Sequence to fold (78 residues):
Amino acid sequence: MLNVSIDEIQRDPLKYLRQVEEGETLIVFHCDRPIAELRPVTQTKPLRPLGLCEGEFTVPDDFDAPLPEDILSKFEGQ
Fold:
């Protein structure tokens, strides 16, 4: 972790961005007080493709129908 002032970053921003790109984390200081942290972006896993389980199950027509009274009363603690 590297501590840098705003003035240092303004003099050569690409120098510090290259360091971040290489994996370094920078703490930016202003008036001897930390105000920001610059760190590399972590790679996220790719999103799952849509339709991955297509055809494996069907949603019933009454999926969003109101619950029966006996089940609903259990949810409500009665």
